[in-house]
Amino acid sequence: MASNVNPTVRRRRLGQELRKLREAKNMTAEQVAERLLVSQSKISRLENGRRSISQRDVRDLCGVYEVEDERMVDSLMQMAKDSRQQGWWHAFGDIPYSVYIGLETDAESLRMYEPQIIPGLLQTHAYAEAVITGALPESTPADIEKRVTVRTRRQERIRDEERPLRLWAVIDEGALHRIVGSRQLMVEQLEHLIEQSHLPHVTVQVIPFEMGAHPGISGQYSILEFPDTSDSSVVYIEGVTSDLYLEKAQDVGKYSVMYEHLRAQALNVEQTRDYISEMVKKHARG
Which of 67, 209, 254, 279 could pair covalently with 62 via S-S, beta carbons 3.0-4.6 A apart? Predict the structure, then answer.
């Protein structure tokens, strides 16, 4: 597959174009489904980019929407073809959060709040292995290693000199105290976190316990933004058996405002590094 083709993003863009065509015809998803003798849920999944779409699906939908511009039809058909190619993550088999990986791979910036652990993009190999082992106690060693490898591969966006991911991570103090693996492992992880925080495109802040209730109290979430203005921002909320993706402007706006308050209440960058350094000393002392 060509390196510049991201199937997840292609599906999203194609879905957005198909939704525009449907809305231009003043048709509901239910009406389209009735015309094509398919379920309404299929039309919805095609439009939100959560389901792969075939060229036949595109042809049929263009017929329903009476698209007469052959160049537009050809362009949509090509997007459908590209969207069915595989990203690098597909080589690792069934990854539950593969949709998220596709979005992260193409994102320009990522703002995230993590209350429990050090964010995956900033984890050491040993810490990632310990986290995954603890979180998935019934997983086989092979499956754990696969997940660690995928997480390590995702971190290449942080080290990409040409197109680094702009990362802003707000971490709850609890993640610094939680002993994952061992105290020595925590020393290495927190030192790595400080090192990463010095990268020009990485910002790390800590929310101390003394702040009490704050806008992130409901749990982890991430906000992804993309270089192409036609790609809407996405709020990602990770779940145990399923994940939630919010793309409506109202939802993204609400989470963005929450994040601004969260950043304002957190320790600033220098205070954060000092605080993490003190935690390193604490874990080193045992």
Answer: 67
